[in-house]
Amino acid sequence: MKSKEKEGPHAISGQVSPESATHYAAQCALVLCPFRHNFPVFTIYHNEHGIKFIINDSCRQLIIQRITRVPQQPSPTVAKAPDHPADMDDCIFTVYVRTGSAIKGGTDSIVSLRLYDANGWYVEIPNLEAWGGIMEPGHNYYERGNLDIFSGRAPCLTAPACALNLTSDGSGDNHGWYCNYVEVTTTGPHVPCAQQLFTVEQWLATDISPFELTAIRNSCSYGVDRLSHAVMKSSASSSM
Questions:
Q1: How far apart are CA 127 and CA 21, in angstroms?
Q2: In Å, what is the CA distance from 37 to each residue of 33, 43, 96, 108, 196?
Q3: Is the pLDDT reported for residue 20 higher than 90?
């Protein structure tokens, strides 16, 4: 790991405003590590490669060395509601995905995610890894037993996420995937830090029950049938 540069609210590759980076870290320090036992030592700083996160032993010595730039990908979207303020456009989403330990439970497929709010809006991330994969360089995502972490900027929802559509495209040599859970934290300017756990416990595969490549989990006040009528928001850029 390269030497640490000055800490503080620095601009981060044009993705997070200078005054926001440290604010986000402080606001979400407790929820960014779902397995904490004590308040974590959480620092955020940058070098020429992007952001570095360091979390102490209370978060199982999670060290994410950097967020590297990735080629531009189709982005998450949400069209603005008429009363949706301009300064609410940019939120930071952090997504934790736990792959099960079942034999052949890992996948090489592309995984996409939709998050819905209680007001019928959703944000879509067409490729989680390309959008916000922040594990170490060379890391294989969605392998058996992995806890993979993704973080990036996307349009703010109008309320905390309460439903999820998790989809595998079924590509690659090993298309079958067993997902234990997805946990999402969000924050942004004037937006309280929110956290939602979606228990999945399902195969996303065409050759194992339930023979589906999509898992939908809904804790919103409306039924699953209404999800198909939700409104997508405007496009957000790929992660750093």
A1: 24
A2: 10, 17, 18, 33, 18
A3: no
The helix (run of H) or strand (run of E) holding residue 23 is helix 21-27
Domains located in the chain, CATH noted: 69-232 (2.60.60.20)
Contact present, 185 and 191 (Cβ < 8 Å):
no
Q: What three-state secondary structure class fits 229?
A: helix
> Amino acid identity, residue 122?
Y
pLDDT digits (tens, 9 = 90+) for 206-238: 999 999 999 999 999 876 566 655 566 544 445
Which amino acid type is present at position 136? Answer: E
- Distances, alpha carbon 85 to alpha carbons 24, 92, 114, 157, 227, in Å: 19, 16, 22, 11, 24
Report residue 88: phi and psi, to 5°: -95, 5
Amino acid, single-letter form, for residue 214: T
- Residues in CB range of 136: below 8 A, 6 or more apart: 64, 65
Rounded Cα distance between 31 and 42, Å, is 11
Q: Which amino acid is at 230?
A: A
Longest CA–CA separation in the chain, Å: 52
Handedness of CA 9, 11, 13, 17 (dihedral sign): positive
pLDDT, residue 55, reads 42
Q: How many CA atoms lie within 13 A of 80 on its CB side?
A: 10
- What's the rounded Cα separation, in Å, for the pair 139 and 65? 12
Q: Is 7 exposed, middle or buried (0-12, 13-18, 19+ CB in 10 A)?
A: exposed
Spell out the SS3 assignment of 84-135. CCHHHCCEEEEEEEEECCCCCCCCCCCEEEEEEECCCEEEEECCHHHHHECC
Candidates 116, 132, 123; CA nearest to 73 is 132
DSSP helix/strand/coil, 193: strand
